[in-house]
């Protein structure tokens, strides 16, 4: 009987050590997880003084700055990193980097004219809402399989994260 008691006592020590190791591992995972940046599945906050009305450029692009940035503004050939959500006038979403959890990087020469023009109006860290008429968007040639009809106005909310 004494041998069993001793065995149980040692087992308790081993169990205690095992429990301590598991707690330490869980704590380490939690602390490492705190340093991981999670991406939002929707656009960030809007400035309290963001305009309700859209401004219109000479080309017909409508825009409003939802959040002022604090960095540089891109030029017409800049490479940028953005998050965005695109919808049609009926509210149907046709694309979103937020949904994919994947910011997009591209040159402003490689996108529709409405993006090239519109993103030059916002600074790094800022957010802009764009209403892109068909002639500055896809016009009569929307991407196959996109669900975007010919002649559609495209609506975007774009966060400019970085100019490379």
What do you see in this structure?
The chain is of the alpha+beta class. The protein has 2 domains: 1-36; 55-163, Chitinase A, domain 3 (Roll). 27% of the residues lie in helices and 26% in strands. The chain contains 3 helices and 7 strands; from the N terminus they run H-E-E-E-E-H-E-H-E-E. The protein has helices spanning 2-34, 97-100, 113-119, and strands spanning 55-56, 62-67, 79-88, 93-96, 104-107, 127-132, 154-163. Strands 1, 2, 3, 4, 5, 6 and 7 form a 7-stranded antiparallel β-sheet that branches. The longest helix has 33 residues, at 2-34. The chain is globular, with a radius of gyration of 26 Å. The protein starts with a helix and ends with a strand. Belongs to the FKBP-type PPIase family. One of its GO terms (molecular function) is peptidyl-prolyl cis-trans isomerase activity. It is an enzyme of class 5 (isomerase).
Topology of helices and strands:
Layout (H helix, E strand, L loop, with lengths): L1 H33 L20 E2 L5 E6 L11 E10 L4 E4 H4 L3 E4 L5 H7 L7 E6 L21 E10 L1
Antiparallel strand pairs: 1-2, 2-6, 3-4, 3-5, 3-7, 6-7
Name the features.
164 residues, alpha+beta, Chitinase A, domain 3, 2 domains, 3 helices, 26% strand, globular, disordered N terminus
Brief characterization of the structure:
Belongs to the FKBP-type PPIase family. The chain has 164 residues and is of the alpha+beta class.
CATH top level assignment of the largest domain: Alpha Beta
Strand composition percent: 25-35%
Instruction: Give the CATH topology of the largest domain.
Output: Chitinase A, domain 3
Terminal CA distance reads: 75 Å
Please work out how many helical segments DSSP would assign: 3
Number of domains: 2
Average pLDDT works out at 84
